[in-house]
Structures are given as structure tokens and as C-alpha cells.
TrEMBL record:
Organism placement in taxonomy: Eukaryota, Fungi, Dikarya, Ascomycota, Saccharomycotina
Tree of life domain: Eukaryota
One GO-annotated biological process of the protein: N-acetylglucosamine metabolic process
GO cellular component: cytoplasm
Protein name, entry field: N-acetylglucosamine-induced protein 1
Family annotation (Pfam families): DUF3605 (PF12239)
Length: 208
């Protein structure tokens, strides 16, 4: 899928069209089967072995920020509240697109009325939450864009899957897609790792 098509689908809210190549999809399903075979589930596996978070802490944060407004005010406010890692089973996108996921310890209430119906194919977005996320990426991707020679070589967009598309619904995660013209920026891999994945980034991750 081209970068233009990716951005167009996200702008229209048509994110259910995103899928993996058959090869990546097979690896994805095998991983899920392996996790299940070991007596775990994707949420527990992600929290304990990939994010290295404490489930008790997640519960306390949920109680600390009970309302959507509380959550919107708190999300992304401190580096200890989220982790950014590579999606090792990305969707079938242009080879210049880096597919990362930001996992939040606090639920991100982007979509309106999810609690009333979590099976729809489209949801309206909370403007305050959307703005908070947009500002976060503008600030945190500024250095990368500069190092790549400016916006002529870099573009980005983000989305959160609708509830019925998520395989790990208990933990909010934002898909961040970064397009870098690798012909003009041959060291793009190094810049992504250095500037965004400062701890190296655990790439053994399954998300939807």
C-alpha cells in the first residue's frame, strides 16, 4: 500500500482495510498459537515479557484517572507512562514506512461511545484526545524530521484501531507510521533507533 493510500484511509477512518502480507500473517498467528500453548494470552505476554510492566500499576493508574478527561490530561504526560517499540508484524505498507507502536499504561479514550457499542466499523474521535496525541507526535518527531533533512523526506500519521480490530484491547496502543525516503536518507534505520528507540526497541511484538 502506498503512502498516499495509507494516509487517505486513515483520514477517512477506513482503517479496517489494513492487513498483513500472507507471510507476516502466518508468523503472527504462529506466535499467538505459541503464547496460548504456553498457557498465557497476548495481553499477559505483552505486559510481562515485552513491556515489562506491572499489572498492579496499570490497575492503580486506572483508579487514579477514572474519567475520560482525567485520562486525556494524563496520557503521554511522562515517559514512564508509555513505551514505544517496533511492530515486528507490520501491515503491508510501502517499504519506506516504519511501523511503530506506542503502548500506554493509561487507557486512551480517543473514540466516543465505545462503552455503548464496541463492535462498530467507525467511531467519532474525541477532539481533545486527538489534539493531545497530535501535539505529542509533533514534538517528539521534530528532531527526526530535522535529522532527515526536513519534511520533504519525512512524513507521518497515526491511528488507533477500532475495538473490534484489536487483538489486545486491554492496553491502549497507538500505531505510528513514519515515511522516510530511504533514497535520500540511507541511514534512516539508524536514526529511528537512535532518536525514537533509545533503548534499542524490542521488536518481538504482536499488535493489531
Amino acid at each position: 500500500m502506498t503512502w498516499y493510500e495509507i494516509k487517505s484511509h486513515i483520514e477517512k477512518g477506513d482503517i479496517s482495510i489494513f492487513n498483513r502480507t500472507p507471510d507476516v500473517a502466518e508468523k503472527y498467528h504462529k506466535h499467538k498459537e505459541n503464547v496460548t500453548r504456553k498457557g498465557s494470552n497476548l495481553m499477559e505476554f505483552m505486559v510481562k515479557y515485552k513491556l515489562h510492566w506491572d499489572l498492579n500499576e496499570l490497575q492503580k493508574l486506572s483508579e487514579k484517572y477514572p474519567t475520560d478527561k482525567d485520562k486525556i490530561d494524563a496520557i503521554l504526560s511522562d515517559k514512564s507512562l508509555y513505551t514505544l517499540i517496533v511492530n515486528n508484524f507490520p501491515y503491508n505498507f510501502d517499504h519506506n514506512v516504519y511501523h511503530l507502536c506506542l503502548w500506554s499504561k493509561i487507557y486512551i479514550p480517543l473514540y466516543i461511545d465505545v462503552e455503548k457499542d464496541d463492535s462498530r466499523d467507525y467511531y467519532s474521535k474525541d477532539p481533545a484526545c486527538q489534539l493531545k496525541i497530535q501535539k505529542f507526535w509533533q514534538m517528539n518527531l521534530a528532531e527526526l524530521i530535522s535529522e532527515c533533512g526536513g519534511s520533504k523526506n519525512v512524513d507521518y500519521c497515526w491511528f488507533i484501531n477500532y475495538p473490534n480490530l484489536q487483538s489486545i484491547r486491554q492496553i491502549s496502543h497507538i500505531h505510528i507510521l513514519i515515511y522516510i525516503d530511504k533514497h535520500n536518507v540511507p541511514h534512516a534505520d539508524e536514526l529511528i533507533t537512535k532518536l525514537l528507540l533509545k533503548d534499542g526497541g524490542d521488536t518481538s511484538v504482536v499488535v493489531a
